[in-house]
Write a structure and sequence with these properties.
Radius of gyration: 28 Å
Strand order of the largest sheet: 10-9-11-12-19-18-17-14-15
Largest sheet: 9 strands, mixed
Strand content: 15-25%
Number of domains: 2
Number of helices: 14
CATH class of the largest domain: Alpha Beta
CATH topology of the largest domain: Rossmann fold
């Protein structure tokens, strides 16, 4: 039987009533200031003109954590494949380097039987490292030059030993596709060849490709059947962004958690390669999320009119926290009521309270939410006027004052300031203390003296639970030495506070890094190493 006839027999066996896929897609571009401009578009695809390619969902991997994530993601992926198949889409299983395992499988023979395409794109059988010069010049948003292993070193060594005991090569232990993903012998195809897969697509008139699998920053992008080759050769290709995973080690730049590293790669793909979609577009419900992908939630309580933190704090959060995958909610004081923080109910579910408030007396119910947050042992970060956030005479019986907030929570006694306001007066000189120089919050923060823009606060005495990290002095006044950044612990709550935070301070890299580290420390998250690129995130 000729090859074309064999393929037509396979094709007829695989035929099914075709449906349509309505998909919300996302792409992005940089705007004039370098921020992402996201574009949403709905597409309507003929299911019979659509293929789903499953990239390298291997049974085993040299990275133990990667194996765990594949196992967690595979059931949802299998549901997507079953749904797409039932609507008439072609499912192509592409576990690279595993074809020998499937040599007698009907799905493998189906791929081999596809007639040669009349036109085969140049290099369709080769790895594609970059889609064009623009992508290459931009480069990856993460450093995976170490291979992306994110295992604990001891666990990784034990895992390599286990693989060897199984008779597998610890460096490349895969033999087949993970068995949590079903292969329909009567309909699907199996191939790791760009040429064979292109032949399949062309023979069936397939214009649309959904790509799922691992790893986003390596095989998903670069394989001969990957996103770059599909996109540059004219296919309508979408990455299913919730059914993928990256090889990224958070100990490498940009020092974000593993899942945020994957998100940064997805954003790169949406910018340079192709749009993306999510599995719920076919399955309903919510997009898939790994169980341990739980970004912390920070609630910002902002109410002061001295230092413009209503603008500087959100800008800082967007650049340094949202970039790192931290969820941020901003609660600004009511413009028509200087004591009302409507929306502070978000604090009930917050992991951290960030406080920039000056002499406000909220309704008692609102202040009780702040007290409840701290009573649960949840952390707080305060800047500048937070030391006297709630110290003012209440306007009525339903409002509450917390005059001892500085003593009880911050661990100091705020007693006004020295009034030195540059350029008329000497600038405050800031320097790390001996204790601070060893503290993780000062990682990447200069230990040399520098000038702050804010005038110096009086914050003495300090409680025995306080660890002073940085102190401020005034030139020519040797008797003055005030704490300006410190940690405290009260009722189990981690507290970080700095009396810096004036408008000009946000222009200082040392302050930006201090504040970022303070938030991460309070959340008990890893603090990036002393790398100047840390502050470059957007």
């Amino acid at each position: 039987m000729k090859r074309t006839a064999v393929f037509l027999l396979f094709f007829s066996l695989a035929s099914a009533s075709a449906g349509t896929f309505t998909l919300d897609t996302r792409s992005r571009a940089r705007d004039a200031v370098g921020d992402w401009a996201v574009r949403q578009q709905k597409v309507l695809w003929d299911a019979k003109a659509t293929a789903v390619i499953v990239c390298d969902m291997w049974d085993l991997h040299h990275c133990k954590n990667a194996v765990g994530r594949v196992g967690e993601m595979a059931p949802r992926m299998n549901q997507l494949l079953n749904t797409a198949r039932a609507e008439g889409a072609l499912i192509i299983h592409a576990p690279s380097s595993c074809m020998d395992f499937y040599r007698d499988h009907p799905a493998r023979k189906r791929a081999q039987a596809a007639p040669s395409a009349a036109v085969q794109p140049k290099a369709i059988g080769s790895w594609c490292h970059w889609i064009d010069q623009a992508e290459e010049s931009q480069g990856y948003p993460i450093d995976h030059s170490d291979g992306g292993e994110d295992d604990d070193p001891a666990e990784h060594a034990a895992w390599a030993k286990h693989l060897a005991e199984l008779g597998r090569n610890p460096g490349s232990p895969w033999k087949r596709q993970v068995d949590l993903i079903e292969i329909d012998a009567g309909r699907d195809a199996i191939s790791d060849s760009g040429i064979e897969i292109w032949n399949l697509l062309e023979a069936r008139g397939i214009r649309n490709v959904l790509l799922v699998g691992v790893h986003t920053n390596m095989c998903v992008l670069g394989r001969p059947f990957g996103l770059r080759n599909m996109a540059r050769n004219g296919k309508n290709v979408l990455l299913v962004r919730d059914l993928t995973d990256s090889m990224y080690n958070p100990a490498r730049w940009p020092y974000v958690n593993h899942f945020r590293g994957t998100s940064l790669v997805v954003e790169h793909i949406e910018h340079r390669v192709c749009p993306t979609t999510t599995s719920d577009q076919l399955l309903g419900g919510e997009p898939f999320r790994f169980r341990s992908d739980t970004p912390p939630h920070v609630v910002f309580m902002i109410g002061e009119s001295e230092y413009n933190t209503a603008s500087t704090v959100p800008a800082f959060a967007k650049r340094q926290l949202v970039y790192r995958g931290i969820r941020c909610t901003f609660v600004h004081v009511n413009e028509n009521d200087p004591n009302d923080f409507a929306g502070i109910g978000a604090l009930k579910e917050a992991d951290l309270l960030f406080l920039s408030v000056r002499r406000r007396t909220p309704p008692k119910a609102q202040l009780d939410l702040v007290r409840a947050h701290l009573a649960k042992g949840r952390p707080l970060v305060g800047i500048r006027t937070a030391s006297h956030a709630f110290d003012r005479e209440p306007p009525g019986k339903h409002h509450a004052r917390w005059a001892k907030f500085d003593d009880e929570i911050l661990g100091v006694d705020y007693r006004n300031h020295y009034g030195n306001k540059p350029p008329k007066d000497p600038a405050t000189v800031i320097q790390a203390t001996a204790m601070g120089a060893k503290h993780p919050i000062l990682t990447g923060v200069t230990h040399d003296a520098f000038e702050a823009k804010s005038h110096l606060y009086k914050n003495k005495p300090v409680a025995s639970t306080v660890s002073v990290l940085m102190a401020g002095t005034l030139p020519g006044r040797d008797e003055i030495n005030e704490p300006v950044a410190w940690t405290n612990e009260v009722n189990g709550s981690r507290v970080f506070y700095t009396s810096l935070g004036g408008t000009g301070d946000f222009e200082l890299p040392a302050f930006q890094r201090l504040l970022l580290n303070g938030v991460l420390w309070a959340l008990e998250k890893p603090i990036p190493p002393a790398d100047p690129r840390v502050l470059a995130g957007k």
